[in-house]
Specification:
The chain has about 210 residues and is of the alpha/beta class. The protein contains 8 helices and 9 strands. The chain has a single domain (about 1-170), classed as Spore Coat Polysaccharide Biosynthesis Protein SpsA, Chain A, CATH 3.90.550. A 7-stranded mixed β-sheet has the order 3-2-1-4-6-5-7, sandwiched between helices. GO terms for molecular function: GTP binding; phospholactate guanylyltransferase activity.
């Protein structure tokens, strides 16, 4: 199985702009990438980062462990991932770099779920992770991509399984997701949020990050 982690470093996490400055968004994106890569390694899966450009020294420094495999493809997400699917004749898993809450157990559930196409839906219609065991399947990200992926699996007659997982469904996209990263995210993600000066506020029955 080849495990691909798409990562666009130029101006990541733009939806977090109401809560984070540009450099903080870049730092958080790198921290989440580091957590995803170390969690993949914890289950014996060496990630291949599918990057829009060569990774910067600061991004590489943020990653634990030995040199990481990188494929550079400046095309948009969908054609870049589909180029990987077209280039290999083995199972391909696609795990998004903003799955800060992913744990080894959650990833093992994803990888061990049988099916020619296995999807881990994100809240809001995304496809946070994917395992492809059918040669004709191709991705179609953005918008309600989970619907597109279910339709594509039907069209090619591929068996489709869905992994129902809090940890794989929670990608850190919007300011309201930051508290999940604080509460349940990996070490790099939590450290970045703490470095930004965030703390948990639980007054009035609400749980949120403040700074
Ligand atoms: N290789 C590659 N990765 C991408 C591309 N667009 C997004 N990604 C990655 O795919 C994952 C999910 O994408 P998004 O949630 O849209 O991340 P994002 O583009 O940083 O966030 P927004 O700017 O808020 O849309 C993130 O880890 C991104 O880094 C792309 O064009 N190419
Ligand atoms: C890549 C995209 O992520 P979202 O924009 O839904 O977070 C998707 O999952 O289709």
């Amino acid at each position: 199985m080849q495990v691909v982690v798409p990562f666009a470093d130029e101006s990541p996490k733009s939806r977090l702009a109401p809560a984070l400055e540009r450099e903080e968004r870049r730092r958080l994106a790198r921290a989440m990438l580091a957590d995803v890569c170390s969690t993949l390694r914890a289950v014996g899966r060496e990630p291949t980062i599918l990057a829009t450009k060569p990774l910067s020294a600061s991004t590489l420094d943020a990653l634990d462990g030995p040199d990481v495999n990188v494929i550079v493809d400046d095309r948009a997400l969908t054609p870049a991932v589909n180029a990987v699917l077209e280039s290999v004749d083995e199972t391909v898993a696609v795990v998004m770099a903003d799955l800060a809450l992913a744990t080894p157990a959650a990833l093992e559930t994803l990888f061990e779920t049988p099916g020619e196409v296995v999807v881990a839906p994100g809240r809001g219609g995304g496809t946070n992770a994917l395992v492809v065991r059918h040669p004709e399947f191709r991705t179609d990200y953005h918008g309600a991509s989970i619907l597109d992926h279910r339709r594509k699996a039907r069209e090619i007659g591929a068996s489709l399984e869905t992994v129902d997982s809090f940890r794989l469904a929670t990608d850190v996209d919007e300011p309201a997701d930051l508290v999940e990263g604080w509460l349940h995210g990996g070490g790099h993600t939590r450290a970045a949020l703490e470095a930004f000066g965030f703390d948990l506020e639980t007054t009035g029955g609400r749980v949120r990050l403040v700074r």
